[in-house]
């Protein structure tokens, strides 16, 4: 059993991968509580797909560096997020439809462009992650992004929760709801980008929803949703890297698969909200 | 009932007036409120009555600072209300609240202390005392650690009232507080609103059930995008004015409840 843990840790690329998985899982798990409470999983999913065309354009314009990809992804997500807002305000379409149109079009453009840029090797990494290919510099980038995102989300915890619970009431209590909503979206985009290394833009949504969604089935406590989501995200991601190494599986999909399996267990066996719970003695009184 | 000092209203002779002057609010589809004016003061319980789409919710939200005002002014205690005021509390329709949100009764009431505590400051003993008093006043002390999803309709309404009390609000804006409550809960809520009014608070509620207006309210605002009439129940809540407000065959308005 001990060997199972220590053997892969002798390789530096494994050490980096496990550390990165812990960090990324932790940050995504914490942020996932906001996504679950905001009920905006699909919106975030669309934005994660919007990262790819951003990377493509950045590679076309500035060549392939870690920072050009990062900035391109950030810019594309913002552009498509705000663009969908503009389309829905300027027409009778709702924002989800606008977002779907914009991100699929952009994603298609991104794929076509990347195939012609001679970076075929990297396309798979951007789509599904390549946590084994991590360098020290990437690890530091991930570290600083995690610190920044966790710092902002923790500092704004109180007003953010009020906004998520009831936007109107929060506004009447003086919470700057519009600014907070934009800020939350920006932080989520940055967290998504940080998780590209681990799971890629196709699977990033899984890491940014499943941890807190699983905890949500287990407890009613809001704070447990946050620290539980972080713990689950971090531990499951790191465990998935080990499992992937032993069974020779791709780490990105393994991370999301492990999280999915834990969710399934909670869905079935959760004492309070699981399928197998004892039926409630009485429905809440009306 | 609440032991928290209701200070400004203790100053006798000081008139705590809420005045709305020529208020216009426009949605994309057109005017929702068109030149609404009225003035009332602390210690009154006011019913907003009108057909669907008459602008009852819009008026409440405009006073709460949730909607951009096209023209007109709102004054509270002689000063114009900018965006929001701690002294004005807004209680949304129960149907518009996510009751599955993982939060306890006390957690919701504590939100009322946000204007005092700000973004980071831990809650002070004064905050805790205000929360405690508000919970006690609404009879929620036993339920304070319960999830809001496990409350009955009447209890949910009281949680939001307790939040407003913790906020130490003087003006309570309620959007259809009675809708969906059973008969007992309705009776309890009427009594609560009467008590809050007696303490010197100003209660403004959108109201559907025309049969109960006389028992609960002191004043009535008949609204149909414009203010049809405003005044004491006895003077304004009359058959001719109601017909004018609902402007449909005589009993059409009554079945709205």
What descriptive keywords fit this protein?
A: 286 residues, mainly alpha, 0% strand, B: 257 residues, alpha/beta, Rossmann fold, 2 domains, six-stranded mixed sheet, four-stranded antiparallel sheet, globular, disordered N terminus, disordered C terminus
Q: What can you tell me about this protein's structure?
A:
Chain A is mainly alpha-helical and 286 residues long. Chain A has a single domain, classed as ABC transporter involved in vitamin B12 uptake, BtuC (Orthogonal Bundle). Chain A is 80% helix and 0% strand. Chain A contains 13 helices and no strands. In chain A, helix 6 packs across helix 10. Chain A is globular and about 55 Å long. The mean pLDDT of chain A is 89. With 257 residues, chain B is α/β, with parallel strands linked by helices. Chain B has 2 domains: 16-82 and 197-257, Rossmann fold (3-Layer(aba) Sandwich); 88-169, no CATH class. In chain B, a hairpin with a 2-residue loop joins strand 1 (17-27) and strand 2 (30-41). Chain B is globular. The two termini of chain B are 31 Å apart. In chain B, strands 6-7-8-3-9-10 form a 6-stranded mixed sheet, sandwiched between helices. Classes of the chains: A mainly alpha (286), B alpha/beta (257).
The major beta sheet of chain A can be summarized as:
none
- Mean pLDDT score of chain A: 89
- N-to-C CA distance of chain A: 53 Å
Q: What gyration radius of chain A follows from the Cα positions, in whole Å?
A: 20 Å
CATH class of chain A: Mainly Alpha
Please report the total strand number of chain B as a whole number. Answer: 10
Q: What is the C-level CATH assignment of the largest domain in chain B?
A: Alpha Beta
Q: Count the helices of chain A. How many?
A: 13
Count the domains of chain A: 1
Report the span from N to C terminus of chain B: 31 Å
Low-confidence stretches of chain B: 1-8, 249-257
- What is CATH's topology name of chain A? ABC transporter involved in vitamin B12 uptake, BtuC
Helix and strand composition category of chain B? alpha/beta
Broad structural category of chain A: mainly alpha
